[in-house]
């Protein structure tokens, strides 16, 4: 029937997982590009600001959720 051609069958039962995986790969790629183009002297303070912002957002979301 296939005449010795290779045949690949792929079954994705949950597309959300595939989309999340693609998004994570894209975010990783963006992170790697940013890391390779920003000097060490700049990236450390930026990481601190990102972490602080993330902590503030999660704290405010927790407080909003308790109302």
Annotation, overall tally of beta strands: 0
* Radius of gyration (Å): 21 Å
Uncertain spans, ≥5 residues at pLDDT below 50? Answer: none
Overall body shape: flat
What portion of residues belong to β-strands? Answer: under 5%
Q: Name the structural class.
A: mainly alpha
Distance between the first and last residues' Cα: 65 Å
Order of helices and strands: HH
Oligomer class: single chain
Tell me the major beta sheet.
Answer: none
Q: Average pLDDT, to the nearest integer?
A: 80
Describe the structure.
This protein has 67 residues and is mostly helical. Helices cover 73% and strands 0% of the residues. The longest helix has 26 residues. It is flat. The model has no long low-confidence stretch (mean pLDDT 80).
Short synopsis of the structure:
The protein has helices spanning 15-37, 40-65. With 67 residues, it is mainly α. The termini are far apart.
Secondary-structure blueprint:
Blueprint: H1 15-37, H2 40-65
């Amino acid at each position: 029937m296939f005449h010795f051609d290779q045949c690949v069958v792929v079954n994705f039962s949950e597309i959300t997982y595939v989309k999340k995986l693609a998004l994570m790969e894209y975010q990783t790629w963006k992170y790697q590009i940013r890391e390779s183009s920003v000097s060490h002297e700049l990236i450390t303070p930026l990481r601190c600001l990102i972490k602080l912002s993330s902590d503030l957002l999660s704290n405010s979301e927790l407080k909003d959720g308790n109302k």
